[in-house]
Design a protein that fits this description.
It is a multi-pass membrane protein. This protein is mainly α and 146 residues long. It is 69% helix and 6% strand. Strands 1-2 form a two-stranded antiparallel ribbon.
């Protein structure tokens, strides 16, 4: 989350700083990547609104992924896996999931899958995502433990 400007640059809060630090990136590089991800997310939302599945992207530039990535970094470093190898594995995994997503869309399988996501299922998913994000915020940022 961007929280303000200092000296003409953006200040990052915990999540973005943690990912940048774990991957040993300078703050300027982290800010650039974050701005790029905001722009790409915005473009994708605009394109998919009239022509895609007509739903907003839930995750945007971060969401739950930063926790997954940090966990992978910590686990892989404990196992002696380099950041380059981890980054390559993540890139390949994301690429494969993109191809599968495209194939699902091209084959028309998405309309069959969409029937599984009734309003009740979507409501449950939203509650689970909200609970996860809210509990992380309360524990980390508000320093409330439970």
């Amino acid at each position: 989350m961007l929280v303000g400007k200092a000296n003409g640059g953006l200040i990052l809060n915990n999540a973005e700083e943690e990912i940048g630090e774990v991957f040993e990136l300078e703050q300027a590089v982290t800010v650039t990547l974050l701005q790029l991800s905001f722009a790409i997310t915005g473009i994708i939302c605009i394109v998919q609104a009239p022509s895609g599945h007509k739903r907003a992207i839930m995750e945007g530039h971060s969401g739950l992924w930063w926790g997954v990535i940090l966990t992978l970094v910590i686990t892989s470093s404990a196992q002696g896996i380099s950041l380059e190898e981890l980054g390559g594995s993540l890139a390949i995994g994301i690429f494969i999931s993109a191809i599968l997503t495209i194939l699902i869309g091209i084959t028309g399988l998405s309309s069959h899958l969409a029937k599984l996501f009734t309003p009740g299922v979507n409501g449950c998913l939203h509650v689970v995502i909200w609970d996860s994000i809210n509990s992380n915020f309360l524990k980390r940022d508000a320093r409330i433990t439970f």
